[in-house]
Please model this.
Amino acid sequence: MRSFHASLPVRTGFQLLAALLMLWSTRLLFVAYNYDLVEVRSLGELARLAAAGLLFDLSAVVYFNAPFLLLRLLPFPFVRTRGCRRLADACYYVANSLLLAINIGDIPFFRFAGSRLRWSSLADIAADPNWTGITLSYLRDYWWAYLLAIGCIALTIRLYNRLNTPPRKNRKILKISNI
Model:
């Protein structure tokens, strides 16, 4: 895969687009895994759900990546420092890893609850005295979801790094002189 050389705002836009497409693809996996429960009756209905999901995923990517966006796009000189770039990288990794992990964890969870994963569901599991047993049985029964999450997170980070290559500073520019 080749590196991508562009300005910081353009690279940032493509990095967010990569995160959005990865998150949206997990939504399609959700529908495929829970096809019998979601009851999508036609290709048109699937397209409508996919479009609505894309809008929801876009808002989630923007909200979760707000610190990343601020660190990348503020018009201050410190934004270009190595430390700020690394902090922005960490914000991107954490935010999008959480998004993907939660979305993928929701794929098999839907069969238990009959609804998408909510904060209250996570709070109920955390409040249960046997939360470690629940987590371990989930790991045993849905090991593929953990592997899928790791793979999607790794792919997202790889895409981010490919899109994060700054332009080379010592490029030779061809000058055409007047004859």
Remarks:
- The helical segments are 8-33, 35-38, 43-64, 66-73, 82-113, 119-127, 131-141, 143-163.
- The chain has one domain: 8-163.
- Residues 22 and 155 are 9 Å apart (CA to CA).
- Residues 8-163 form one domain.
